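STRUCTURE REQUEST FORM
Protein name: Enoyl reductase (ER) domain-containing protein
Source organism: Rotaria sordida
Requested output: C-alpha cells
Priority: standard
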Amino acid sequence: MCRLQINSYKCGTTTSATTIAAQQLVYPLRGSSIDIHPNARWQQNGLTVAGGNQLSNPLGLYVDDDETIYIADQLNHRIVEWKLGATNGQVVAGGNGQGNGDHQLSYPQDVIVDNEKDSLIICDGLNNRVVRWPRRNGTSGETIISNIDCLGLTMDENGSFYVVDEGKHEVRRYGREESQGTVVAGGNGSRNRLDQLYRPHYVFVDRDHSVYVSNYGNDRVMKWVEGAKQGIVVACGQGKGNSFTQLSYPQGVVVDQMGTVYVSDGGNGRVMRWSKGTTYGSVIVGGNEKKARFINMAESTTSKTEDGIPSVMTAAQQNSYGEARDVITLRSDVLVPRQLSCNQVLVRVHAASINPIDWKLLNGNMSHVNRYSFPHIPGNDVAGVVVNVGSSVKRLKIGDKVYGNLSGDGGTYAEFVRGNESKFALKPNNLTMIEAAAMPLACETSYQVLFNKASPPIGPGSKVFVCGGATATGWYAIQMAKAVGAHVATTSSQRNFGLLEKLGYKIVQESDETKDDPQQLFVIDYNSKDFGQVLQDKNYDLVYDCVGGEQQWVAAQRILKRGGQFITIAGDDPEASVSLKSALTMGTHIMSRKLGSVFCASHHSYIFHLLHTSHQELDDIRTKYLETGKVKPLIDTVFDWQKDGVEAIYKLYEKSKSGKAQGKLILKIADEQ
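Status: completed
Returned output:
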C-alpha cells in the first residue's frame, strides 16, 4: 500500500519536485529541505520509486540528502532503505518477525535519520516505544522512549526529538538523553479547543521551533509557537469536508520557508497547499475521487482486497493492565484478522456492550485465570454481520446478521472480530444491532442458571429469588422465569425500582404471594430489609445470586426449601482481585459449602457458575424469549466512537464501573444498514 510522499530539493536556480502518487492512501509528506519554490509545479502522474511487490502497508518515510528513502514497512515489521534508482530495497532495521525484542519491531509507524549519531529513530508502534537503531549494519535497537503511543516524529537542528503521542493527544519534545520530555502541543484532553489536540498524527518543526501538527480527529492543521499554551489553526478549521476550505482526516504535513503549509488530505485523496494567513487551500496533487482511496475510521474503506474486506481497521487496543484512560488507545491501523481457521467466522461489528467482567479483565483482577498478551483488543459481547467464513462453517453464511459473546477472548471493540462459529447465533429479527449487543453474556448466563444448572429446570410453579434484580443478569432472569410461569421475587435498591417497572411489572413490597399475577413483582429494598428475614421459611426452589457477598448465602439458607439450590455468579467478594490466595480461599469456601450441603439436614446446594457460550442456547433465547417479546433489553446509554473517538470507550468503562447505569451500556461502532 503506497503512501504519497513529496521530496522537494534545490537544483541550481530551479526547484524540482518528484511526486510519488498515492496508489491507495495519502500519507506523510517529508523532504530533506523545506525550501520550496513558490512557483513550483507538481506532476500529476506519479512515478513509483520504491516498493512494487516488496513493501506491505508502508507508512512514514524519510528522504536524506542523497535521496535515499527510509520506509516504515509496517506489516513486515521492518525499516527498508531504498537508494535512488535502485530496484530493490535493503532491510536496515527489524525484519526478524513481529515482536518486542531488541532485534524486532512491531508495526513501525515512522522513521527519521539522526545524522549526528548516524542512526535511525523509529516509532515502534505496537511496542509503544521509540527506538534508536544503527543506520549501518545494525542488528538491534535501543529503546530511548518507553510507554508512548507513538505515531509520528521529527527532529530539530539541535537534535531534539518531537514525538506524537496519539493516545494522550499531545506532542512532546525530548532533548538528547532525555526520557520524560516536555509537552509542546496539546496535552489538555481530546476536544477541539485551541489548547487541545484530538488524535494527532504527524508533526513538523520549523526553524523557529514552532510545531505544526496534523490533527486527524479535528480535520485541521495547528501551529504551536514555541512556549505557547495554545495553538492556532493554519489549515482548515471549517470542519470535515472536500471544499477548498476543508480537510478530511489530514495526515502528513510540511511547511516551507514562507510559512506555506503542505498537507496530505487523506479523506479526499489529495495534497493541498495553504498559503500563510489564508482561509482556503489549493490542490497540488490528487483530488480525483474516482481513484483516491484512504483509511476512514468511520467507513473502513482502507485498502480493500478483492472480497471487499479492508486490510486494516480501527480498534481499541489495551497495552497493559490498568484503568481504561491509562491503557487503552484507539488506533486506525490495526490489521483485520482475515486469516480464518476452518471453524471461524469474520464479523463486521456494529455494536458491542460492556459487562463487569470486562473491566475486571482490563485492570488485571482476573489475570491469574485469564492472562492476555498485549496489545489486546477488549470487548466480548457483539452484534454484527458475517463477512467471511471458514471452510467448515455450515450454520452461518456471509451476510447473516449475528449476535454473540467471545467468552473472555475479547476483540469486539473493533470494526471486525474473528471468532469460532459456536460463539455466534442469528440475531433476533425484532432487535436492532444495539439492542442485540445488550443480550449475549448477561442473558445467556441467566438462561444457563435457570434451565441448565437449576435441577429440576425452572418451570411453572417454581419459586425463584433473584439477588440483584436491577443487574443485567437479574432482570433477564426475572423475565425468563416469569415467562415460564415461575413465581419470582427479588432485591433492589429503591433507586432502581423504576428500572424494574420499565420491564412492565407492578412493584409489590408487602407480600411475596404474587404468583397468581404475572404482572406483579415482589421487590425487597436491600438497604432497609434482609430478604432472609422477610421470606424466612417460604420454601424457594432457587436463589440466584447476581451481586455477590457472603451475606447472600447466609440469607438464602433461611428461605430455601429442603434440597433447594443457591447458584451464584459473583462469589463472596466480587470486587476482589483473583490472586492465587483468593482463588484458594474461594475454592475452600465452595468446597466447605458443598460438603455442608451433603451433611446438613436442609441439603441446600451451593453452586458457583461461569458462562460457557453456546450457539444452541443463543438460538433458544432468540426464538423462545426475544423474538416472542417475552424478554426485552434495557439500554441506559449508547456511546458512539465515530462521534467521540476513544473518549466513548473511556466513558463506557467509567460508567459501568460506577454501578450507576440503569440498563446496558453499548458501544456503537458502525451505523446499522
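Reviewer notes: The longest helix spans residues 580-599. The radius of gyration is 29 Å.
Form closed.
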